[in-house]
Amino acid sequence: MPELRKDPVVGRWVIISTERSRRPTNFEPAPVVKSTGFCPFCPGNEDKTPPEVYALRPGGGPPNGPGWRVRVVPNKFPALQIEGTLDRRGEGLYDKMNGVGAHEVVIETPDHAVDLADLPVAHVAEVLEAYRARVVDLSRDRRLRYVLIFKNHGANAGATLEHTHTQLIATPIIPRILQEELDGSRRYFELKERCVFCDIVAQETAAGNGRRVVATSERFVALAPFAPRFPFETWILPRRHDAAYQMVADEGELLDLARLLKDVLMRLNLALDRPPYNFVIHTSPVSDGDLEYYHWHIEIMPKLTRVAGFEIGSGFYINPTPPEDAAQFLRGITLEV
Amino acid sequence: MPELRKDPVVGRWVIISTERSRRPTNFEPAPVVKSTGFCPFCPGNEDKTPPEVYALRPGGGPPNGPGWRVRVVPNKFPALQIEGTLDRRGEGLYDKMNGVGAHEVVIETPDHAVDLADLPVAHVAEVLEAYRARVVDLSRDRRLRYVLIFKNHGANAGATLEHTHTQLIATPIIPRILQEELDGSRRYFELKERCVFCDIVAQETAAGNGRRVVATSERFVALAPFAPRFPFETWILPRRHDAAYQMVADEGELLDLARLLKDVLMRLNLALDRPPYNFVIHTSPVSDGDLEYYHWHIEIMPKLTRVAGFEIGSGFYINPTPPEDAAQFLRGITLEV
């Protein structure tokens, strides 16, 4: 059983995989599956993954067979284990609990050769709907407090399988940076009675401003944040205050988000020659319901520079590209529509 | 002039290099200087660096000439600029200030072909003394609040020059993770009237415990932390409570630290085939003097796994190697002394 352990100083929880322990000789980088090799995410190989927990099959058909357009399966090598109790306990001054949680993979398309940015807008919206449906389902598990949705695209961004996919980790704790955002935005609200993200959207889109705006849609804004850690870091925020991703209201809103997400990924692809990238959906804890001080958003981080351990070890980032320059460049990209 | 900008939600300061802005085409990784190529850190090339701010010349001799054993110079491409005023200011809801600070390089040895772990203990102590002297000197600058000492070893850990060196960045703000440690250890002290790091040292070295101890010396302990983010992450802590690195008492203490640091680096080299690594010295802010709740230490992080942006974007780490296994393995290494 993996363990969740808490650093006693900063309160950061980490997952320690006690089962798949890696010895010193096991640290060669995991190979990326080649286009020509066997792929467990391709149609026809449905029996090579654990049984699906969600699938979109427009033409119908039985589970775990072909005919799907989006498919969600448990990770075959999960970081957390769905069965069991938390068994919270101490070890002297330390705190730990069992590594209970869900680790799922959203296979975004049957087509091995394309990326999320290449899919039609309606298909991207179906992927976003799969995220939503899984969050709603996992929210019913009272042991779980957070559902983290993230995408590693490209080997240098940590992807170990080439077939385009998103991951979802549901945890009994709140990941460190999300807790910091929750704390920071609550303090801001206590001071001002306003959501800090609503204020950011208002300031960035005010008339005469817009230097950091990358693209907009009816209901969402994509912008380069004021203090980005990484070159070309781009956030997508809903214009309307909503604490949680799964509260995306209707199909129209999902389509609008899909359009802007695809737009931004295409701009990054054209500007940076299809870079490896990560995105993470920052949303409120599932146990918290609707918070007036928190505002969900997507953080997209192209992987262009090496992150030295020093930056991880100090939390101090040096970004060689001002966000105003990055936004101007991305705005200037002409997309074929 | 570079800028220091603060994220309005989590309060994290980043350096934005407004001068050396990188356009999308400039992101090819910086080449590592080959052993045979020109090296600005080698003896005879002293005029290829900015004038030295510290040097150890056992045989005497003029500054900026050969004959040194340890040499500290300003970084030729500094992330922060030493001249100027902070000029703290707002931009709507955002906060920023000028990127004032120091960025120096500690050239650990004239010998291009060796690493810190290969130097004799007395020479490692001289490197540690150079760190101390620079912190003491930079502490006199009232604009600066923190001196961050860190080492990137190997291209995959972010080193851009091969000749073994340490970097030092002095900043007018406190880096994020250090602020978190300060906050966390202060809360612990308020609750218990004890230093959390002293408690960690006591628990880890208690009789019958020691599963996470890697090595010890008279005055220091090297251990795998209870909740490490990375495989084989190793911390070195002084047994005696001291808030600040520069308070290392005497030559004997520096020698003792040098012995243990070399010991740990040699174990990592033997266990992991000379891995790239980073270390960061965590110490109290220079403006704070001696804190009863904070305890300086060194965090050493071998770079064995790819850190996905997701981990940086969520603060959530999955570590495949339990620290007990890592410590046991490192303890079992036989060092030729």
Alpha-carbon distance between the two ends of chain A: 49 Å
The count of strands of chain A amounts to 15
Number of contiguous helices of chain A: 6
Overall spatial form of chain A = globular
Explain how this protein is built.
Chain A has helices spanning 121-138, 176-192, 196-204, 251-272, 309-314, 323-331; strands at 3-6, 13-16, 54-56, 70-74, 89-91, 94-98, 102-107, 146-153, 165-171, 213-216, 220-223, 234-238, 277-282, 297-302, 317-319. Chain A is an alpha+beta fold and 337 residues long. In chain A, the strands form two sheets. Chain A has a ten-stranded antiparallel beta sheet, sandwiched between helices. In chain A, strands 2-1-6-5 form a four-stranded antiparallel beta sheet, with no helix packed on it. Chain A starts with a strand and ends in a 6-residue tail after the last helix. At the A-B interface, strand 1, strand 2, strand 8, strand 9 and helix 2 of A face strand 1, strand 2, strand 8, strand 9 and helix 2 of B. Strand 15 (317-319) of chain A pairs parallel with strand 2 (13-16) of chain B.
